[in-house]
Design brief:
mainly alpha, 6 helices, flat
Length: 176
């Protein structure tokens, strides 16, 4: 659309001509949503819905639209839910300290929305919950002592006795 509108032509006619020529060239073929109805035509426009749709289309995280304290409340619940998966007590204490620092920092800021109560995590109580939630380690089975393999002479003797039809425990010097 680099050409200028002719001075004698109305703006609507020029736009319609541009659209018709693009349609004839096939410029609108194979577009996303081709042949599908437009979404959200049956409901009134809202800025929140537009923002939600835009975040979904761009592949973003919808949690970014939530108030910060609500995000921290969800993070706290997820942390307590994931206690059994945390590898060591030191990692848990560092995670709790980081969460508490971010929570207290958020409480010190001016409120952007409603006040949402989110409790600070006590590190010792969280470690106690972690210790209760961890699965017991499987007992290590005692190693079985290796069975001694018979020596070469004993194996040869067993083979010879088996060929003669005698049992392996029988007296080899007996001649029946």
């Amino acid at each position: 659309m680099t050409e200028k509108k002719p001075a004698h032509m109305r703006h609507e006619d020029w736009v319609e001509r541009q659209l018709r020529e693009a349609r004839e060239r096939g410029a609108f073929d194979n577009l996303d949503g081709h042949g599908k109805p437009l979404r959200s035509l049956d409901r009134p426009f809202s800025a929140e819905q537009w923002a939600r749709d835009w975040v979904e289309r761009s592949g973003g995280d919808l949690q970014a639209l939530l108030p910060p304290l609500l995000i921290l409340r969800k993070e706290r619940a997820a942390l307590l839910q994931a206690l059994p998966t945390i590898g060591s007590e030191q990692v848990l204490r560092e995670t709790v300290a980081d969460f508490n620092a971010r929570l207290l920092d958020q409480y010190r800021r001016p409120m952007d929305g409603p006040l949402i109560a989110v409790g600070v995590l006590d590190a010792d109580e969280t470690v106690a919950l972690w210790q209760q939630a961890r699965p017991e380690p499987e007992p290590v089975p005692e190693p079985t002592p290796p069975t001694a393999r018979p020596g070469l002479f004993a194996r040869v003797r067993t083979l010879v006795l088996n060929r003669r039809g005698r049992a392996p425990g029988a007296d080899p010097f007996r001649t029946d």
